[in-house]
Each structure stands twice: as structure tokens, then as C-alpha cells.
Design goal:
Blueprint: E1 2-6, E2 9-11, E3 17-24, E4 33-38, E5 45-50, E6 57-59, E7 67-72, E8 77-82, E9 91-98, E10 107-111, E11 115-119
Parallel strand pairs: 2-11
Antiparallel strand pairs: 1-3, 3-8, 4-5, 4-9, 5-6, 7-8, 9-10, 9-11
């Protein structure tokens, strides 16, 4: 299993970024996927998750209405669209493979290397 995140960077408050996570080494279309983040000095936290078909999603309360998660099974890629970014969104963002197809609350221990998102003026 390999997960490679990209798309992070420096953005001003109120701006947008789209993160991508390219997956390989497993049947991508059979598993839900998740995005987590870890800010300095804080624990890693769930940001968003999406079922294998994209039909179910969930989001942390802190990002609801601002972030969307999507996937392209043909490209074996999961995306995190982040709008109206705030300084408190600054973190390293990781994608993670879930354990099941449609149940979003169970995870395998496969992580990407992370991509840094910094929201600052």
C-alpha cells in the first residue's frame, strides 16, 4: 500500500487549496478513505472520510461547510477541497486507508507521508 499526498502550501486566510492523495498497491475502489491532520503540539485528528463509492461522507465539525471530500476511483485518487481556510487549519494533512468499504469509522494503519498546509497572512 502506498499513499502519496500533494497540493499543500502557503495560503492566505479565506483562500482555498485542493489536496490530492494518489493510492496504489490495493483495490482502491473497495475501500473508504480518510483525511487526517496534525497541527504542531496537537494530536492527529480526523478531518473527513468518504466511502468507497463516494456515496457517504463525514466531516469534523470544525470543517463542515468549508471542506469537501471526493474521489476518482479510475485515477485511484482521493481529494480534499478546502475553502475559506483559517489559520487554525494549519497542519500536516495525511490520507489514510480505511478498513472497510462503507463504514467510515475503522482504519487500517496505512498513511501517506503528509503534505503541509499553512494558512497565514
Amino acid at each position: 500500500v502506498q499513499l502519496v499526498e500533494s497540493g499543500g502550501g502557503l495560503v492566505q486566510p479565506g483562500g482555498s487549496l485542493r489536496l490530492s492523495c494518489a493510492a496504489s498497491g490495493f483495490t482502491f475502489s473497495s475501500y473508504a478513505m480518510s483525511w487526517f491532520r496534525q497541527a504542531p503540539g496537537k494530536e492527529r485528528e480526523l478531518v473527513a472520510a468518504i466511502s468507497n463509492t463516494g456515496g457517504s461522507t463525514n466531516f469534523a465539525d470544525s470543517v463542515k461547510g468549508r471542506f469537501t471530500i471526493s474521489r476518482d476511483n479510475a485515477k485511484m485518487t482521493v481529494y480534499l477541497q478546502m475553502n475559506s481556510l483559517k489559520p487554525e487549519d494549519t497542519a500536516v494533512y495525511y490520507c489514510r486507508k480505511n478498513r472497510f468499504a462503507s463504514y467510515l469509522g475503522s482504519y487500517d494503519n496505512y498513511w501517506g507521508q503528509g503534505t503541509q498546509v499553512t494558512v497565514s497572512s
